[in-house]
Amino acid sequence: MSSTNKTPYLELNNWVGSDKPKREDFNEDNNILDLTIGEHLENSNLHTTAAEKAAINQPFVVTSYTGNGNASRVITITNDFAPKWGIIFRSSYTPSIVDIDNRTKYNYFGVFSTLGSNIGLSLSGKKLTVQQSGTAVFGSELRSYNENGAAYIIIAFR
User: Taking a C-beta distance cutoff of 8 angstroms, is the pair 90, 152 a contact?
Assistant: First the structure.
């Protein structure tokens, strides 16, 4: 005979003094507990996975590449996550240079995001498209994110 009473949430046996518990009552309660707790632990909406915990502990990624001089190039920033925003700059170099004689500015620093980016940068998922401007024209502003042989650093944030 199962119990006279049941618990309110899981309907486990809740015996009174006159009840006579049986082994199948305990086995049934154990199955209910195992199923309920197991479903709860597997619910990814309620619990953080190991990969998610690792991601929380690493809110950004740093990567680098060497420019190849092409007018446009796609850089895979990371395989772990799609960044929301980031910065790019030429390693060991000034953010920009101004050639006063030609009134030309060379940009080596930029900001990119899912909402918009500096001219010459475009973020799509885990990939950043960088551009390298061609020959300077009097009074121009050039994008220099893929200069041949130049080292660049990318810091991308979740």
Answer: yes
- Assign 134 a pLDDT band (cuts: 50, 70, 90): confident
Distance CA 134, CA 71 (A): 7
Give the distance from CA 75 to its chain's centroid: 16
Q: What angle do CA 16, 21, 23 make, to 5 degrees?
A: 155
CA dihedral of 37, 42, 46, 50, whole degrees rounded to 10? 130
Per-residue confidence band for 157, with pLDDT thresholds at 50, 70 and 90: very high
Taking CA 138 as the corner, what is the angle to CA 71 and CA 146, rounded to the nearest 5 degrees?
20
* Bridge pairing between strands 141-143 and 104-107: parallel
Residue pointed to by tokens 């209910």: 32
Phi then psi for 79, rounded to 5 degrees? Answer: -100, -5
> Cα separation of 97 and 60, whole Å?
28
Amino acid at 132: Q
**76, two tokens:** 């895979």
Yes or no: say if 140 and 67 are a contact pair by the CB < 8 Å rule.
Answer: no
